[in-house]
Design a protein that fits this description.
The protein is α/β, with parallel strands linked by helices. Helices cover 26% and strands 24% of the residues. Strands 6-5-4-1-15-16 form a 6-stranded mixed sheet, covered by helices on one side. It has a 6-stranded mixed sheet with strand order 8-9-11-12-14-13, with helices on one face. It has a 5-stranded mixed sheet with strand order 21-18-25-20-26. Helix 5 (111-120) packs antiparallel against helix 10 (340-353) and helix 11 packs across helix 15. The radius of gyration is 25 Å and the shape is globular.
């Protein structure tokens, strides 16, 4: 039975523990006769995304402190292990360790990140959606080692693969029904067994390119966890930890160790999990929290290696049950010594990368951020950097393919641009996916449907400067089955180049291949016809920065509300 969620201050057996383990000893002799519980420390992280070096801008701070970078992460992990009983420490992760990575890692298919995590002592990790960015075969190579089938061993040395074990309980090979990777692992500590179940979010196919998830089927998170928890219990495992790449969000007032107004998929998932599951190490939302949900300790360490979650478990030696669980999110500060092995790894790959990374490709006159403006109380508005990317994609396809509009998905904008010179590496960090631009035909009616689908998916498509439309906060939202039924976008307000869109006319529109395939839930885009695949999105972005420098942040006036533009 799970007895988690207690903070460090709440140490000792509770009434629940008394019920589970019998009456409390009434004499010192009886107390001494009871075996002391086994202390197990879990050190957890998530959503590293190949950030070997400290992230820049707001992505490199948390809780008011500069944080992140594997040189410092490795040192903090070593210190935390030293503070605990080293042999009782297990280091785990909840997915997206690779993918959407800066150039230093991505240029080598994230092999540097795996090597860094090997040296940092990672033991187990769940897969995340970004572990599937390059497909199942590449994920298996990352686990097992070997040179890349196209690029070979780019740094000239063999790639031995991950020393840690990737776990993938809910990603099944469609042809056989078997898990792609091991669904769980059992780790023994001083005679007690700790089970780890690893999973990604069920919705991975909606946020990864179709090539990345080809041949795979993804199952419900709670159902899968419960299934393998039963299997673990049959093997005598009572202490069960789920490493889950899905998460939630707490209110803005909450700190890194709080759980204020928690919302998101993790709440429902944890509520549906079997009571035998004690701890859920979560991720995906890049948030920090420390929660008790349905008697389970539920944690997340934000992103980019800025936090480590230090989890203390007390496990009864006789029954193997977790007596108590408490967590603390620790900031990976940069005031500690750098791990020299990590420094050597970074330097080695920087040397191989050569001068490409530092090549200047443009100049910004001001910082251009990816943050979204508020639209009727929600963060569904425009983004300066998102708009800029859409402008770049239109510029790359207007003359070439006759495009009159472009739209960019928010999940594809991964970092801010600081003011001043922009290097190729910085541009890559903003757009690391190497998606192709796709220009296709949509009718005016289909365009309205695509825009209505934003309110079904809760994701804004950043529009190029040629696009303008008005949103009615009192309009109705369509459904997944029929997004076109929504009335959020005021009919007649959609313009392209200042001209009202005719629902019966056809327009050439540019998106990336991820969106063109229905990614992020934009199934309406799959109805586009006459598709032409163009250049890589990063190349279009770099070309635009070079041609338009110095570049300023676009004005956020492409999506307006009825409060700004009253109905006629």
């Amino acid at each position: 039975m799970s007895m988690t969620g207690m903070r460090r201050a709440a140490v000792g057996l509770t009434a629940l523990a008394v019920a589970a383990f019998g009456a409390v000893a009434t004499s010192p002799e009886q107390a001494d006769a009871r075996p002391k519980p086994v202390d197990v420390t879990l050190l957890a992280l998530n959503d590293l995304h190949g950030n070997l070096e400290p992230p820049s801008g707001s992505s490199g701070t948390i809780a008011g402190q500069a944080a992140g970078g594997v040189e410092y992460l490795a040192t903090h992990l070593a210190e935390l292990r030293a503070a605990a009983k080293k042999k009782n420490t297990i280091t785990v992760a909840a997915g997206d360790l690779i993918g959407a990575s800066p150039l230093l890692s991505a240029a080598f298919h994230d092999e540097p990140t795996i090597e860094a995590l090997n040296m940092a002592g990672l033991d187990y990790a769940s897969v995340g959606n970004h572990e599937f960015d390059e497909g199942a075969a590449e994920l298996l190579r990352i686990q097992n080692g070997g040179c890349h089938p196209v690029d070979g061993c780019a740094d000239g040395t063999p790639f031995r693969g991950a020393d840690f074990r990737y776990l993938s309980a809910n990603a099944f090979k469609t042809a056989t029904g078997k898990p792609l990777l091991a669904p769980y692992a059992i780790h023994k500590v001083q005679g007690v067994k700790v089970g780890f179940i690893g999973m990604t979010l069920e919705g991975t196919p909606q946020i990864v390119s179709q090539q990345g998830v080809a041949g795979l089927t993804f199952a419900d998170e709670a159902d899968t966890a419960n299934r393998y928890a039963r299997e673990l219990r049959r093997k005598g495992v009572q202490a069960i930890v789920v490493l889950l790449h899905e998460g939630g969000t707490q209110a803005a007032t909450g700190g890194i160790n709080d759980c204020v107004g928690m919302t998101g998929p993790i709440v429902d998932i944890a509520n549906r999990m079997d009571p035998s599951i004690d701890v859920v190490v979560s991720g995906h939302t890049h948030q920090a929290y420390n929660c008790d949900i349905n008697g389970k300790l539920v944690t997340s360490a934000s992103s980019f290696g800025r936090l480590v979650t230090d989890i203390d478990l007390k496990i009864d030696r006789r029954s193997g049950d977790v007596i108590s669980a408490a967590a603390n999110n620790v900031v990976v500060t940069r005031d500690v010594a750098k791990d020299p092995r990590q420094t050597a790894l970074i330097d080695r790959y920087k040397t191989v990368l050569g001068p490409v990374a530092g090549r200047q490709v443009g100049v910004t006159s001001q910082a251009i951020t990816r943050s979204q403006e508020t639209l009727f109380g929600t963060s569904l508005g425009e983004s300066p950097l998102g708009n800029l990317i859409a402008d770049a994609q239109l510029a790359a396809t207007d003359d070439e393919e006759g495009a009159v509009a472009a739209f960019m998905n928010p999940g594809g904008v991964r970092a801010d641009l600081d003011a001043g010179p922009v290097t190729y590496e910085e541009a890559f960090t903003v757009q690391p996916f190497a998606n192709n631009l796709v220009t296709l035909d949509l009718t005016g009616a289909q365009l309205y449907c695509v825009l209505e689908q934003q309110f079904v998916t809760n994701r804004t498509l950043y529009p190029s400067a040629t696009v303008g439309y008005v949103v009615d906060p009192n309009g109705t939202t369509g459904t997944v089955a029929d997004p076109c039924a929504g009335t959020r976008v005021v009919r007649g307000s959609l313009t392209l180049g200042g001209t009202a869109v005719d629902t019966t006319a056809t327009y050439r529109v540019t998106v990336n291949n991820f969106l063109a395939g229905g990614g992020d839930g934009f199934s309406a885009l799959t109805g586009g016809t006459n598709q032409v695949t163009g250049q890589i999105d990063l190349d279009a972005f770099v070309a635009y920065l070079t041609a338009q420098s110095p570049v300023s942040a676009p004005t956020l006036d492409r999506i307006r509300t009825t409060a700004e533009v009253p109905a006629a």
